[in-house]
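HOLO CASE FILE
Compound: zinc ion
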Amino acid sequence: MIISDDNSQRENLAIMITCPRCQHKVDSQALQCPYCSNILKAYGHPGMTLHQAVTGEFLCETCLYHGDDSCNFPQRPYATSCTLYKNSQIIAEKIPPLPLPRVFKNWCLRNKGLLLLLTLILGSIALAFINSRR
Ligand code: SF4
Ligand SMILES: [Zn+2]
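Model generated. Tokens follow.
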């Protein structure tokens, strides 16, 4: 009969990540890399991942918030570490494209004013054309 305690089960379930500095596998909950002392979590909080760029690159180059111009962090566009980094390439792959009718419906909802104006102009032209034929 094999008796296993909770701690050994937890160790087996630990998710491993790669340290961006030394490339060793470390526990995803580790605050600091046990091999090179690289800080992996911001403010000592296990839930706050400190994303880090590969040497010679900047995180902002592939960040969603740089792409949509919504980031106002002072370190942008040269951030080498950031807690808010979101990889735009991974997110773009996860979101499936909308079907064409849905895209058209969304466009119409966003441009109601323009559509109303076009309807008024076309209606006026049609009325003027009908009146000129009498
Ligand atoms: S959230 Fe961070 S990585 Fe993203 S653009 Fe802003 S500073 Fe750069
Ligand atoms: Zn390391």
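CASE NOTES: The chain is about 40% helix and 5% strand. The chain has two domains: 11-94, 100-132.
CLOSED: yes
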